[in-house]
Design goal:
Layout lengths: L5 E10 L11 H16 L4 H4 L2 E4 L9 H8 L6 E4 L6 H14 L5 E9 H9 L15 E2 L9 H5 L5 H16 L3 H20 L12 H5 L7 E3 L2 E2 L9 E10 H6 L9 E9 L14 H14 L8 E3 L5 H11 L12 H4 L7 H15 L4 E8 L4 E8 L8 E4 L1 H5 L28
Parallel strand pairs: 2-3, 2-4, 3-5, 9-13, 10-11
Antiparallel strand pairs: 1-8, 4-8, 6-7, 9-12, 11-12
Length: 438
């Protein structure tokens, strides 16, 4: 085996349910706690001192550059400080890039970390207070990725630029493409989401640890108000969570030098990235994703596995439409679990950092079942930016493999927005937005 083969050696997930307005924990506090917990998980007392790259996934917090604060708090000696743009794809994309950097010998030990405190922020707001943040110096040494507008001018002018608008429109487009009635469609997606809750009920690091029936999920109520048709609250990502997670990555050579037992090792076998058109209006339709199809299948091809050989998957699940599109594009078996955490509604939806939790869970499960193979999917924007990773505790037969398949996606049909068009038109999809009282 190549001594620079990348491996995940330490993971952690932090959930903080308590709230004290006089002792508020910031996102950076959860990041620090998660980093230390991941080091404990690695079973190496020397790994923190060996970290030479601190990589923070962007959150909705207001820090300029939290990596430097974390490095100082951990007592690190001038490590590389790396950040990412917004996007639910960022964690998997960052893990793939980190694997490449380790394989190339550019870094030895990376801390990948992120956190959100949406629950605390919501409770502070009810008290008429706002979160205060420590001052952190910037900029990063390196940004992996860039911020890109996710809407065209025509969408902005019409006020269509929120996930709770776009994903319900994808959902209604899926219903139309399948030829379903509103009632049959609602029943089907409620059953799908109930399955996610069943996984969360068995996951000790899930935010909502109870199984919710399809009937309760699909029925609007005082605790499950309608948000945007056809989605009530229980079909939306749950960002009112205080959650942090961390991953420690290194090479097999360095892992041995640090005394990390092989029982803690999990290998990233492959990764792939791509994006659909940044503006939803430019897509060929509203119920498919060429980027998921090309990038997801490429990740599997590079790993030398088929969908049928996967033992577990975690499909990015901000809304039911995102899951259904991925299932269709990759040919996943939706009679089997599509999540290992419970998803962003029930497992918890700490915005861009959710996939840190799904990868941490994948590592935990892979250690228990070393011969098995898992797939992580990640999605950012409006079903826009996509990243995939294949993992196993079994060493890969080759070096870590990665591909960006954007050229293949760009060759797919797209459409041009005609802002000044006046004439016959076809309604492709729609949604109805509801107020705070449902």
């Amino acid at each position: 085996m190549n001594p620079l083969t990348p491996v995940l050696v330490g993971v952690s997930q932090i959930l903080e349910r308590g709230f004290d307005p006089d002792a508020v924990r910031e996102p950076i506090d959860l990041m620090l706690t998660a980093a230390k917990a991941a080091a404990v998980d690695s079973q190496s007392s020397d790994i923190i001192a060996a970290i030479d790259s601190v990589r923070v996934v962007r959150g909705i917090w207001r820090y300029k550059q939290p990596a430097g604060y974390l490095a100082q708090a951990l007592g690190l000696d001038k490590p590389e400080l790396v950040g990412t743009p917004f996007g639910g794809n960022s964690v998997q994309a960052l893990v793939s890039q980190t694997a490449l950097d380790i394989l190339a010998g550019e870094i030895e030990v990376a801390l990948v970390v992120g956190a959100e405190v949406g629950n605390t922020q919501a409770k502070l707001a009810k008290l008429g207070q706002t979160m205060t943040y420590r001052e952190t110096e910037g900029p990063y040494d390196k940004m992996l990725g860039e911020e890109v507008p996710m809407s065209c001018e025509a969408e902005k002018v019409r006020g269509v630029a929120q996930p709770i608008q776009m994903y319900p429109m994808f959902e209604n487009a899926i219903r139309h493409a399948r030829g379903e009635s509103i009632a049959d469609h609602r029943d089907r997606i409620a059953k799908l989401w109930s399955g996610f809750s069943a996984v969360a009920a068995q996951n000790p690091t899930a935010w909502i640890q109870k199984e919710v029936s399809p009937e309760e999920i699909k029925t609007a109520s005082a605790s499950n108000r309608m948000v945007s048709f056809p989605y009530p609250k229980l079909m939306n990502s749950n960002s009112a969570v205080d959650m942090g997670a961390a991953l420690l990555m290194t090479s097999v050579e360095k892992a041995r030098a640090l005394g990390i037992p092989e029982s803690q090792w999990v290998y990233p076998w492959s990764g792939a990235n791509a994006h659909d058109t940044y503006a939803v209006s430019n897509r060929a339709n509203l119920h498919s994703s060429p980027a998921i199809r090309h990038a997801g299948n490429k990740a599997l091809l590079l790993a030398g596995v088929t969908v049928a050989q996967l033992d577990r998957v975690d499909v990015y699940s901000c809304f039911p439409s995102a899951v259904q599109v991925a299932v269709a594009e990759l040919g996943l078996d939706d009679t089997k679990p599509l999540t290992i955490t419970g998803g962003l509604t029930f497992g918890g939806g700490p915005l861009n950092n959710y996939v840190m939790h799904s990868i941490a869970k994948m590592v935990e499960l892979s250690r228990l079942h070393p011969s098995e193979i898992g797939l992580i999917t990640a999605n950012g924007g409006y079903l826009t930016k996509h990243a995939f990773g294949v993992y196993s505790a079994t060493a890969p037969a080759q070096d870590f493999q990665f591909a960006d398949v954007q050229d293949a996606v760009d060759a797919e049909p797209t459409r041009t927005v005609l802002q000044d068009y006046d004439g016959p038109a076809t309604v492709e999809s729609y949604t109805v937005m509801y107020g705070p009282e449902g």
